[in-house]
Amino acid sequence: MAAHILIIEDNKASMDLLTLLLKAYGHSVIQAEDGERGLALAAQEMPDLILCDIHLPKMDGYAVVRTLKNDLRLRHIPIISVTALAMAGDCEKLLAEGFNGYISKPIEPENFIGEIEEMLPPYKRSPGLQKTILSVQTAPIIQIAPTYTKVLVVDDSAVNRDLLRVTLEPSGYDLTVVADVQDGLTCAKASHYDLIISDVHMPDEDGFIFLDMVKKDPLLHPIPFMLISSTSDSEADSRRAKAAGAACFIRRPIEPHILLEHISACLKRPQNIPENGGADGNHSHR
Question: CA 174 → CA 5, 17, 140, distances in Å?
Fold first, then answer.
């Protein structure tokens, strides 16, 4: 019997990451994007645990915890601050205000579940990682990767990297995750990968530059390449990606099960040859 957990968080990327992690371990999730809504849902849903950001619209995390701890019906519910505050004084203030614990951002996915489950009774803890990725709004979709499918992820955002990790790894993908193009190119040349996923907008060298580097290398050229953008809504970027040899161009936000479907399609689809020429797609892959 897993736990019913309320997340109060106004940052969508952080909300998505926390939700994916909790659902991947079998917990159910309630979401609130501001402090007032969080308090209303706490009274309505009576969750087993509350995760709360500090900087929130309408009512900040400190006001939320004080209100909860002064309510006889709700004061027993453990509440954990998930915050970017890192100074020793800040941590002491969190506990003094009534939080039962705190987790620093950026969170570490491999440690996150263990940290929050310390606040739950044993019968509410998860049985382990589920081999199903749950969408925030849809029913479970089972997407199991082909055996030994290796994916290289290049993204300068820690939250985006973690979202991809918790979406792909429970479905069986073997991920290598790096933060910039040069590290990505080094990894791609050093090992075999079945798919490369790259963010578009990164400092210094962006995803289009990385795509061009990969497609100009005869040994890397056959690897399917997926570009993901959190900011571009331009059809021109999508056409540019296809012309340069990308297997697909994805825009965030995207539901986990839809992302998995795109990845599956990329792995099966014959790769595009860039319109301006490029390496022969018949080279064998290392």
Answer: 29, 19, 21
Model pTM above 0.85 = no
Q: What is the pLDDT of residue 41?
A: 97
Give the orientation angle of helix 88-97 with respect to helix 61-69, to 10 degrees. 30
By DSSP bridging, strand 150-154 and strand 28-32 are unpaired
Sheet strands (E) in the chain: 4-8, 28-32, 49-52, 79-83, 101-104, 150-154, 174-178, 195-199, 225-229, 248-251
Residue 285 has pLDDT above 50, yes or no: no
Specify the fold of 4-124: Rossmann fold (3.40.50)
> What are the tens digits of pLDDT across the range 125-152?
876 655 444 333 333 444 555 657 899 9
* Closest-CA residue to 157 (of 201, 222, 95): 201
Q: Give domain limits for the chain.
A: 4-124, 150-268
Contact 82, 103 (CB under 8 A): yes
CATH number assigned to the domain covering 150-268: 3.40.50.2300
Residue 50 has pLDDT above 60, yes or no: yes
